[in-house]
Amino acid sequence: MKGIRLGEYNRMTVVKEVDFGMYLDGGDEGEILLPARYVPDGCKPGDEIDVFIYLDQDERPVATTERPLAQVGEFACLRVAWTNEYGAFLDWGLMKDLFCPFREQKKLMVKGASYVVYVMIDEESYRIMATAKVERHFLKEPPQYAHGDDVGLLVWQKTELGYKVIIDNCYPGLVYEDQVFRPIAVGDRLTGYIDTVRPDGKIDVTLQPTGRRMTEEFSETLLQYLRDNNGRCSLGDKSPAELIADTFKVSKKTFKKAVGDLYRRRLITISDDGIRLV
Predict the structure, then answer these.
(1) For residue range 231-265, what is the model confidence (pLDDT) as tens digits?
(2) CA–CA distance, 144 with 4 (Å, rounded to integer)
(3) Which of 234, 254, 239, 247 is closest to 179 using CA atoms?
(4) How many whole angstroms separate alpha carbon 99 and alpha carbon 142?
(5) What's the rounded Cα separation, in Å, for the pair 266 and 278?
(6) What are phi and psi of 46, to 5 degrees?
(7) Could you read off the pLDDT of 91-102 as tens digits, one per residue?
């Protein structure tokens, strides 16, 4: 579809107004309808607007100002709205649901359940569709991350080691179980931090800032906790890691580093029954 990016956002010019909407300049594809229900207030011929282009029930290009949960080239966790003898139809935030044929399902999709999928163009039919076989669509280029980099995460699968995640809509990664200090679930979108990029390209991720940055951020959290709790905390170096994790959602190692940081700054005292503000 030359001139138009199907399944993506396009900036287009309004050509003319009709009773049932606006027609937009689609270049080689001719004029494309923006139905009246999606026309922004005050919109007139000559204006440029950002619209999402997809196919209507008759497989014709149509524009909308609604924002789908994902566009072509993106991963998302979508709920199955209904199924039929051809596959599953996923709710992606638009009037027309997104089709995922049986051949693109890793396991039989069930109405009401949610699955992580990749949105793509079917090369044969040139329709927008979803695939649950997301592994085929990760970038092949070696990742260029450095330790501590901020990244966006989509939680993809629960495993025995922890949680598989999709990093920045590009690469697979893993958050180890012992690095998770709060409830997370498949489909969650989180901020993560690069821990290690292995020689084989596999990426380990944490949900907390790493190194000195983590210590500094948690030091301030611990300091505010003391201020909010009469200047004392009953936890200390000898407290169980589980209790520290339940209270502060950090590892015992991070807790001890922050305590050491505050002590060196002479902001707290340390005793057998915990720590106190000076």
Answers:
(1) 888 888 788 888 888 888 777 878 888 888 887 88
(2) 31
(3) 254
(4) 31
(5) 7
(6) 100, -20
(7) 999 999 999 999
